[in-house]
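Late entry, evening session. Most of the bench is empty. Finally got around to the prediction I had been postponing all week. Sequence below, unchanged from the version circulated by S.P.
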Amino acid sequence: MIMEVSYKIFDSIEYSIRCEEHDIHYPNGPYPTVEEFTYKGTGKVVGYIDGGFFRKDKFLIVDKETKKFMKVKVSDCEILEY
């Protein structure tokens, strides 16, 4: 079963780093937006990774543009074609 999905990945680590730098260097300026650190893409699901008790279930996706494998939380995906 292969399905095509769209997904979003939020880079929370980089976002936290930028917010800390902002507090130090630009305390009166606007904070970075979440959208700046969210990667959106589409791809085909080629596998399923069971999350277990402490981790979320994930899909193994081949990105349509980069042709790289990515692990994405199932909750961050939307089915485009089944």
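Two things to note before I forget:
The beta strands are 4-10, 38-49, 58-63, 69-73, 77-81.
The longest strand covers residues 38-49.
Will write this up properly tomorrow.
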